Amino acid sequence: MNIIDLIEKKKQKKALNEEEYKFFVNGYLNGEIEDYQASALLMAIYFAGMDIDETTYLTKAMVDSGENLDLSSLGKYIIDKHSSGGVGDKITIMFMPIVASLGDFKVAKLSGRGLGHTGGTIDKFESIPDFNVNLTNDEFIEQVKRINIAISSQTKTLVPADGKIYALRDVTATVNIIPLIASSIVSKKIASGANYIVLDVKWGIGAFIKTKDEALILAQTMVEIGKRLNKKIIACITDMNMPLGRYVGNSLEIIEAIEFLKGNMPCDLKEITYSLIATIISKTNNFKTKDEIINAINESIYSGKALCAFKNMIKNQNGNVNIIDDYSLLGKTNYEYHIKSNCPGYVKNINALNIARACKLLGAGRSKKNEKIDLNAGIYLNKHYNDNVNNNDIIATLYYNNSDYIDEAISLVGEAFEFNSDKQPERKLVYQTIE
Fold it and tell me: Is 188 an active-site residue?
């Protein structure tokens, strides 16, 4: 078997078998297959496609390329959640402590940093002073045993083939193909060790997947891979055309998540958070109906149990728990700029991609994996969907330390808002669930 034969076979639109994908993954990881050869195969895959068998073979080969976290000692219900990336998407920050407070559930979350226009969960947690996002495997497992919840950065030993292949895809224009996206996501989730996984597959202008139809195919592919590799994976397809909540930016999103856990829940964040939790918890058979789960979520939030679980996680990962009641401890920026409306009416739309690009210009995002970001920079949306706006009302507030690109950021945010003289219909953010 050699890589030239695999490239030729795929060029002819023939399916590769399990051994051939294993050969490719292991050969590229250990350096026997060169970058230019791997690039050729990825490009052949890009144009020829992959069937579900091939996608499963590639996923398994990547899972087997590194260590797999063994969480079996944690009990029967080990929950994980993944988002395909969005703007203002702080759902994980609420999801984790709520689920951890609902009973016999363990939430073990390995996560990554933001890249491109989307935010990273690890960056958000790192905005909490002294919060340790680099737990060892033993520390991670022990903490989940003790308090039901932990989050940590993905290690380089977890699915190393995916990291190397993704880096190559990124520079060869082979990122945006559904089988490769599905294989990348599912391989990391399986290797992370949870046995109940819910995927938030986002579509829209603020997501990597732009249409509902593409999101549906991606969701179905990932759920099917899970079935074939004996993992319970469920996917919810959700709308990412407008920013989620009012805060976009790392420490700002921590603030909004804490407010959510205190019971101050914007309707868009509530709909998606509750839906993801109810969908995955219903598969554990610990509750009779989804209505029972919704009631349990409400009780957890309004009794303070969810906030207590969040506080406990911060404390156990050496973070400053005083941020719960004093947001100034998260830090602040030197400057802020208020964007005002020159058009009365109701907010019809807020372009999520414009807001994300503006946030990145303010310093809240990165273009390269190791680029330093400003954890306090970001945007507060004073007005959101269907809010009534008068002339000269503040519609958004920009927080920043570096003013190099402030004019461009102001322009992007101003252009993001659309208004209408009439109220708009209520939005439905959860489009479909795939099981």
Answer: yes
Active-site position among 169, 202, 360, 383: 169
Instruction: State yes or no: is 407 an active-site residue.
Output: no
Does residue 158 share a domain with residue 304? yes
Can 169 be counted among the known catalytic residues? Answer: yes
Candidate list 89, 162, 268, 374, residue with the active-site label: 162
Q: Tell whether 350 and 320 lie within a shared domain.
A: no
Answer yes or no: pTM beyond 0.70: yes
pLDDT at 367: 66
CATH of the domain at 7: 1.20.970.10
Write b or e for each residue in 359-391: b if 16 or more Cβ atoms lie within 10 A of its Cβ, otherwise e: bbbbbbbbeeeeeebbbbbbbbbbbbbebebee
Query: Catalytic one among 153, 184, 275, 300?
Result: 184
Q: What is the pLDDT of residues 97-156, one digit of tens each?
A: 999 999 899 999 998 765 555 668 999 999 999 999 999 999 999 999 999 999 999 888
Question: Residues 54-96: pLDDT tens digits?
Answer: 999 999 999 999 999 999 999 999 999 999 888 999 999 999 9
Using DSSP's 3-state secondary structure scheme, residue 240 falls into coil
Structure tokens at 233: 């994976």
| Domain encompassing residue 173 | 72-324
β-pairing, 149-153 vs 232-239, is: unpaired
CATH number (domain holding residue 346) = 3.90.1170.30
Q: What is the mean pLDDT of residues 249-273?
A: 97
Which of these is catalytic: 60, 188, 189, 384? 188
Catalytic residue among 82, 106, 305, 360: 82
162 an active-site residue? Answer: yes
Quick check: helix, strand or coil at residue 307? helix
